[in-house]
Amino acid sequence: MKIVIGLIIPLAGTILGAAMVFFLKGEMKPNVQKVFLGFASGVMIAASVWSLLIPAIDMTAEQGGITWLPCSVGFLLGVGFLLLLDTIIPHLHVNSNKPEGHKSKLGKSLMLVLAVTLHNIPEGMAVGVVFAGFTSGSTTITAAGAFALAIGIAVQNFPEGAIISMPLVGTGISKQKAFSYGVLSGIVEPIGALLTILLTSLIIPVLPYILSFAAGAMIYVVVEELIPEAQSGEHSNIGTIGTAIGFTLMMILDIALG
Questions:
Q1: Beta-bridge mates of residue 91
Q2: Which residue in 99, 154, 165, 189 could disulfide with 13, CB within 3.0 to 4.6 Å?
């Protein structure tokens, strides 16, 4: 039951964020977007370090392995995996008119949703692998630590849900459909988390690699997408402040609850 709740928490953050389309008029102001994007960056960076890489290193030490090997290999594989998806899957980022990935005739709305879905894949994996570590009996990952990550991801999913749903209304689709697209972009998280749990339960020794893999995938999203979008145009310091707040909040959650 704890695992089910843990997997639903991040999705709930996306749903609540997407629901803002019913309460806020017009498109989100650029400065607000910068703060939210920076905040999401800070949360993901802190989560990658405290919730994923450090536990991977500690777990490898427990197993008597080479402490730097799994975290390094897993991290680089995670970056490579997201790089591959970024190259293959057609998607379009907020405030951009130039699609990325494989050339496609997909509509702008769908490509915007695919962009956020790409972001959510590593987040789902991160939550799944941490809960897998908890259920495996490892002393390096506690239930509180797993829930701290789930809550942190949910908090950053709230503005992310709003960022994807509100611009969709500006493309001419209804608020109900924009909300649905926002929710759909977040469904990949519990699915990815569940698949990660199933995989890890079959091959427990690779857990440090999968923890690091999720960290690498998350850092790729931060460096490739979130930070550049948060720093674009004028008033980039607003995005920097958002990153600092997000990083500090996730760090506090992990240390206090972990």
A1: 100
A2: 154
Annotate 1-24 with DSSP letters as a single string: -HHHHHHHHHHHHHHHHHGGGGTS
Please choose, from the candidates 39, 37, 166, the residue with its C-alpha nearest in 3D space to the C-alpha of residue 113: 166
Amino acid residing at 128: G
How far is the C-alpha of 41 from the C-alpha of 43, rounded, in Å? 6
Q: Which residue's structure tokens are 């992310």?
A: 160
Residues 233-254 have a mean pLDDT of 92
pLDDT of residue 130: 92
The CA dihedral of 165, 97, 35, 215, to the nearest 10 degrees, is: 90
pLDDT at 94: 65
Q: Residue 222 gets which letter from DSSP?
A: I
Separation between Cα atoms, residue 110 and residue 18, nearest integer Å: 15
pLDDT value of position 205: 80
* Number of residues in the chain: 258
pLDDT at 180 over 80: yes
Domain residue ranges of the chain, discontinuous segments joined by +:
2-17+30-257
| Range 117-144 average pLDDT | 86
Task: Write b or e for each residue in 167-184: b if 16 or more Cβ atoms lie within 10 A of its Cβ, otherwise e.
Answer: bbbeeebeeeebbbbbbe
Contact 100, 225 (CB under 8 A): no
Residue pair 188/14 in contact by the 8 Å Cβ criterion: no
The lowest-confidence range among 5-14, 155-164, 238-247 is 155-164
How many angstroms separate the CA atoms of 104 and 238, rounded?
34
What integer best gives the mean pLDDT of the chain? 88
Backbone torsions φ then ψ of 23, nearest 5 degrees: -110, -25
